[in-house]
């Protein structure tokens, strides 16, 4: 292993006293022993790529379609399990030919194109660590994440490279290789197309131990930089189990996960879990488009559909008439994740699709679905459902004697007993922040929730200042940091305000430096600056000007107070307030 | 108003929603999502802005009609 992966391994080793890793395998008290039978294992260890592709090929399913890819331009491409296994092998060879090895970090930054799937699986096959980034991120979030993750390789497109990377590429010291999708590449980059074509189509999957890092998914923090949640190859046990149990994925199922692999849902349930369960995945390159989506379900005979509240609410806005001319009879199971799905949307989906959307809950950290309205069980509209078998969830609150479980109907923090296979093993190089997630044998989710008398869990809100917009978690600090880089901005406070489609939208309160006047042109200039740096998904949709912001004695902006006022809620404890908002 | 006027209004509202875009860099055939990188929330905000400015409702099924400035200008002229 290289020095960097040693560093990573030492960061990962700190989970010992948190209970994040499962108990040693092959012991009779291992609750995951049954789930372990869903996978093969590889050379005494576990490798996700083997479970997702090669074992299916070896078992005679190589001709089954793994991915039906639908291009923006109306083109269609089928990739069988053999095809995808071959592409992954070629990609693995491209990595090793450039001297990269086990434990090195590969970042992917592109839309939903076939190369993305080859990159993910080839990286895992070669024993390297796969980190997806959302292609609509602006240069700032991309750079921060590549620095934290010690990126060795970046796979992207020529257009993204030119617009977002080229300027600062030389300032990332770890970065050795930039692969560009297609036949050509700018200077200092390597074209992926010709490299893949020249590579050997077979590759002996690298032997990886169950606890070897496989994936890093970034998630936002309230303060400080984003955190890289580390997941290991062992997670595939839970990916297999939860896909089957919570989403009803079975061999041959026609399955469409609309999430982008730049986020954890799009990797766990948009690449790994479905392939491990040997489904046929629909991958649509295009963004949400109502008629396109309805046509895909009808034409491709989609059976299981996993989407998100923002998209579902957009469909709802279009009304029943827009759906009237489509045949949705193929649909068998519908699920939703990202933020709570409102009861109206659950009921509406039953009317229009003949099936209700089943809401479920999990996080980047948990690596897989924890609580769900499961297939076959009664759907409670507005609830996140019940914990999956093997998952112990509770509502807890801090008392003098540590964290205590609360009773039914009480609101507290949603907590889980660590130990399931896909739990994160570390925040990359952030041992203290990682340890903070665990208290008295619980993993604390940061979400406020309550459990009803029948065991269904209900989301109430975030316990911290993180913003949930269109299913994405956004850290206010990352947004504020970019806002104050604008020459006119002195201070910024960023909160989420309710939005009927996106759940929440990002709103910024700013004060100005002397010499600047608050007007429309300045509002647009600041918002434009933020969008350039952060991308549209993260940048504020609205900026308002203030003379001063509410601050504590230590000078910390009280986002909580901005939000309470925005929502017309009680202001709570304001004893630390020093300067008020004007 | 002419199609050209509607094109100008569309461009104005587009930039108000996405002020990272420079008017001079937009060509009539640019796709607002694929080329100009608006996300779906931006598109909704643009539809709302056009509604407020011109008083027209653009149903979801017509969103492809405003996917480029050129298509949008023609569509708005027909629709208003």
From TrEMBL, chain A:
Keywords: Acetylation, ATP-binding, Ligase, Nucleotide-binding. Gene3D superfamilies: 3.30.300.30, N-terminal domain of ligase-like. Residues 478-556 form the AMP-binding enzyme C-terminal domain. Residues 1-34 are annotated as: Disordered. GO terms for molecular function: acetate-CoA ligase activity; ATP binding. Its EC number is 6.2.1.1. One of its GO terms (biological process) is acetyl-CoA biosynthetic process. GO terms for cellular component: cytosol. Residues 56-428 form the AMP-dependent synthetase/ligase domain. It comes from the Bacteria. NCBIfam families: PRK04319.1. This is acetate--CoA ligase.
UniProtKB/TrEMBL annotation, chain B:
The keyword Phosphoprotein applies. GO terms for molecular function: acyl binding; acyl carrier activity. InterPro entries: ACP (IPR003231), ACP-like_sf (IPR036736), PP-bd_ACP (IPR009081). Keywords: Phosphopantetheine, Phosphoprotein. It comes from the Bacteria. Residues 1-80 form the Carrier domain. This is Acyl carrier protein. The lineage of its organism: Bacteria, Pseudomonadati, Pseudomonadota, Alphaproteobacteria, Rhodobacterales.
């Amino acid at each position: 292993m290289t020095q960097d992966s040693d560093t990573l391994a030492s960061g990962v080793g700190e989970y010992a006293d948190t209970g994040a890793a499962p108990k040693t395998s092959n012991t009779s008290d291992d609750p995951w022993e049954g789930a372990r039978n869903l996978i093969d294992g590889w050379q005494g260890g576990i490798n996700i790529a083997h479970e997702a592709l090669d074992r299916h090929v070896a078992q005679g399913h190589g001709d089954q379609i793994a991915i039906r890819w639908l291009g923006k331009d109306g083109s269609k491409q089928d990739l069988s399990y053999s095809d995808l296994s071959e592409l992954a092998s070629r990609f693995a060879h491209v990595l090793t030919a450039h001297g990269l090895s086990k434990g090195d970090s590969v970042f992917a930054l592109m839309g939903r194109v076939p190369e993305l799937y080859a990159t993910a699986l080839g990286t895992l096959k070669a024993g390297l660590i796969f980190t997806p980034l959302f292609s609509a991120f602006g240069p700032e979030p991309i750079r921060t994440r590549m620095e934290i993750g010690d990126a060795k390789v970046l796979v992207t497109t020529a257009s993204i490279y030119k617009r977002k990377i080229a300027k600062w590429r030389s300032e990332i010291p770890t970065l050795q290789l930039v692969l560009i999708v297609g036949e050509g590449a700018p200077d200092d980059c390597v074209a992926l197309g010709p490299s893949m074509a020249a590579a050997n189509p077979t590759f002996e999957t690298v032997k990886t131990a169950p606890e070897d890092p496989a994936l890093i998914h970034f998630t936002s923090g309230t303060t400080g930089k984003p955190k890289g949640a580390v997941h290991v190859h062992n997670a595939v046990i839970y990916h297999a189990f939860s896909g089957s149990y919570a989403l009803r994925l079975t061999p041959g199922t026609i399955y469409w996960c609309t999430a982008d692999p730049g986020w954890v849902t799009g990797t766990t349930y948009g690449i790994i879990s479905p392939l491990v369960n040997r489904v046929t995945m629909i991958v649509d390159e295009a963004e949400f488009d109502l008629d396109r989506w309805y046509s895909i379900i009808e034409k491709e005979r989609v059976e299981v559909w996993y989407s998100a509240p923002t998209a579902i609410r957009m469909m709802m806005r279009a009304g029943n008439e827009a759906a009237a001319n489509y045949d949705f009879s193929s649909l068998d199971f519908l699920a939703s994740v990202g933020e709570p799905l409102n009861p109206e949307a659950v009921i509406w989906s039953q009317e229009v699709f003949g099936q209700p959307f089943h809401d479920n809950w999990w996080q980047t950290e948990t690596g897989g679905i924890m609580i769900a309205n499961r297939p076959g069980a009664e759907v409670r509209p507005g609830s996140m459902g019940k914990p999956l078998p093997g998952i112990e969830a509770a509502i807890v609150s801090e008392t003098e004697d540590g964290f205590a479980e609360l009773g039914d109907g009480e609101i507290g923090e949603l907590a889980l007993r660590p130990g399931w296979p896909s739990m994160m093993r570390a925040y990359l190089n952030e041992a203290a922040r990682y340890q903070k997630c665990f208290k008295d044998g619980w993993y604390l989710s940061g979400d406020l929730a309550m459990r009803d008398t029948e065991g269904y869990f209900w989301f109430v809100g975030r316990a911290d200042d993180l913003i949930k917009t269109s299913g994405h978690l956004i850290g206010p600090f990352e947004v504020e940091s970019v806002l104050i880089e604008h020459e006119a901005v002195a201070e910024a406070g960023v909160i989420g305000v309710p939005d009927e489609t996106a759940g929440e939208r990002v709103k910024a309160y700013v004060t100005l430096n002397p010499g600047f006047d608050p007007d429309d042109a300045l509002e647009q200039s600041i918002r434009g600056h933020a969008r350039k740096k952060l991308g549209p998904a993260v940048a504020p949709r609205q900026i308002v000007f203030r003379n001063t912001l509410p601050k504590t004695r230590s000078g910390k902006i009280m986002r909580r107070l901005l939000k309470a006022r925005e929502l017309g809620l009680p202001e709570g404890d304001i004893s630390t307030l020093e300067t008020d908002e004007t | 108003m002419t199609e050209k006027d509607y094109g100008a209004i569309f461009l104005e509202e587009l930039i108000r929603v996405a002020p990272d875009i420079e008017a001079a860099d937009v060509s009539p055939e640019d796709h607002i999502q694929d080329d100009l990188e608006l996300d779906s929330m931006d598109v909704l905000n643009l539809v709302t802005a056009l509604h407020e400015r011109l008083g027209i409702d653009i149903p979801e099924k017509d969103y492809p009609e405003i996917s480029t400035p050129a298509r949008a200008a023609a569509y708005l002229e027909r629709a208003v």
